[in-house]
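This section describes the prediction task in plain terms. A model, or a person checking by hand, is given the sequence of a single protein chain and must write out its three-dimensional structure as a string of tokens. No templates, partner chains or ligands are provided. The sample shown here is typical of the held-out split.
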Amino acid sequence: QVQLAESGGGLVQTGGSLKLSCRASGRAFSNYIMGWFRQAPGKERKFVAVIDKSGAITYYPDSVKDRFTISRDNAKMYLQMNSLKPEDTAVYYCAAVRSPVYSGSAYFKARRYDYWGQGTQVTVSS
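The expected answer:
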């Protein structure tokens, strides 16, 4: 089992940057595929990025591709967010699932993940 805690959210102007962190505690963090999702008020939770266990494979939707970068080390996952836009405003969640192999689009769905953090608010002002 793994416990997740996000940090690094805040208020930033359009075009600015933020770096979110997700601290993982528990055993065998390296056995988990990790993802970032976001949820704006009144909307469904949406996929932002995924990273495989080794950190070698990442994927992003078009809405954040070339602006956001997901990465991980032995105990944390990160989301570097550049060129932020007002539509990026949301609560950002990190998520984890213990899985033997990364298999693509299944990990773009929130229901694929077993563990979630409490979320961190990102607000981008225009």
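For orientation: The chain has a mean pLDDT of 95.
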